[in-house]
């Protein structure tokens, strides 16, 4: 059981979403040593989230994309990507997310994701389901919708697998009929999977802050998480980039993909 009211964490992410929308177009991006982009908006949002979440749950550690790991790595740890899809954010492509996960003892136990351009917030807690709030900025938004991923005993051409560039370069997809998509945000790939729009999200060279919240969301929507060799995923807050391809998919589809996919 979480030591805080999930609704309070969701409200903090909603406020961050409003702030993010107000910051669009205000900053020239910088190029980080890994050649990815960062803006002052990323930094301001991460500072805001760390401050507010720290008040909500004192004593928890933090792992942020811009600030790294602070606190006890064995404690429950907030895992924050203030803008997942910064290139989309900078280029004016309306597909980027704010991702806040909570991990402990190798598990993703809470996740909240805002999709500010679409005015949506999704959240999940271990054992409590995954939920979508449409029109999140309205004073009286409509009731939240429970999410279920799409599963099937066979794959067809119009089923969609989302993958990042490094996964697409490393994995041989020729044995499956599905179409591939790269939407520029690993977090949004997991959002779309939890809503039943995709049959699988596949990533490689990701960091925990890219996937923690989304994995909680997808697992509560009925998905499982496996590496390409079939081994189970664990949330490791001190791990570097994960070199092994990681699949998130519903159980029947996962079995098919583990049988059919291979490294190039």
What would your notes on this structure say?
The chain has 264 residues and is α+β, with helices and mostly antiparallel strands. The chain has two domains: 6-146, 2-Layer Sandwich (Fructose-1,6-Bisphosphatase, Chain A, domain 1); 160-263, D-Maltodextrin-Binding Protein, domain 2. The protein has seven helices and 17 strands. The protein has helices spanning 6-23, 40-56, 86-91, 165-170, 186-194, 208-220, 251-260, and strands at residues 30-31, 37-38, 61-64, 68-70, 77-84, 97-104, 107-115, 120-125, 130-133, 145-146, 160-163, 171-172, 179-181, 200-203, 224-227, 246-249, 262-263. The strands form four sheets. The protein has an eight-stranded mixed β-sheet with strand order 4-3-5-6-7-8-9-10, sandwiched between helices. A hairpin with a 4-residue loop joins strand 7 (107-115) and strand 8 (120-125). The N and C termini lie far apart (42 Å). The mean pLDDT is 95.
Short note summarizing the structure:
The chain has 264 residues and is α+β, with helices and mostly antiparallel strands.
For the record, what CATH class of the largest domain applies? Alpha Beta
The portion of residues assigned to helices is 25-40%
Radius of gyration equals 17 Å
Shape: globular
CATH superfamily of the largest domain: Fructose-1,6-Bisphosphatase, subunit A, domain 1
User: Largest sheet, if any?
Assistant: 8 strands, mixed
Map the helices and strands.
Layout: H1 6-23, E1 30-31, E2 37-38, H2 40-56, E3 61-64, E4 68-70, E5 77-84, H3 86-91, E6 97-104, E7 107-115, E8 120-125, E9 130-133, E10 145-146, E11 160-163, H4 165-170, E12 171-172, E13 179-181, H5 186-194, E14 200-203, H6 208-220, E15 224-227, E16 246-249, H7 251-260, E17 262-263
Parallel strand pairs: 3-5, 11-13, 11-14
Antiparallel strand pairs: 1-2, 3-4, 5-6, 6-7, 7-8, 8-9, 9-10, 12-17, 14-16, 15-16
Helix pairs in contact: 1-2, 5-6
């Amino acid at each position: 059981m979480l030591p805080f009211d999930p609704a309070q964490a969701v409200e903090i992410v909603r406020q961050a979403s409003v702030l993010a929308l107000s910051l669009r177009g205000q900053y020239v991006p910088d190029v980080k040593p890994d050649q990815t982009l960062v803006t002052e908006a990323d930094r301001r949002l991460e500072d805001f989230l760390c401050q507010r979440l720290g008040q909500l749950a004192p004593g928890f550690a933090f792992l942020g994309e811009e600030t790294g790991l602070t606190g006890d790595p064995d404690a429950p740890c907030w895992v924050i990507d203030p803008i997942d899809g910064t290139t989309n954010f900078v280029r004016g492509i309306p597909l980027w997310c704010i991702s806040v996960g909570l991990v402990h003892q190798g598990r993703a136990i809470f996740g909240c994701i805002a999709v500010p351009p679409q005015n949506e917030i999704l959240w999940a807690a271990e054992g409590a389901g995954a939920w979508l709030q449409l029109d999140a900025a309205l004073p009286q938004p409509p009731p939240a919708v429970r999410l279920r991923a799409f599963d099937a005993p066979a794959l067809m051409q119009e089923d969609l697998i989302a993958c990042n560039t490094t996964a697409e370069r490393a994995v041989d997809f020729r044995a499956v009929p599905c179409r591939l998509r790269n939407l520029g945000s690993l977090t949004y790939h997991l959002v779309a999977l939890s809503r039943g729009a995709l049959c699988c999200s596949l990533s490689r060279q990701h960091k925990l802050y890219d996937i923690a919240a989304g994995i909680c969301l997808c697992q509560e929507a009925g998905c499982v998480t496996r590496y390409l060799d079939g081994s189970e995923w664990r949330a490791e807050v001190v791990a570097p980039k994960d070199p092994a391809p990681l699949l998130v998919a519903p159980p029947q589809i996962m079995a098919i993909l583990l049988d059919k996919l291979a490294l190039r």
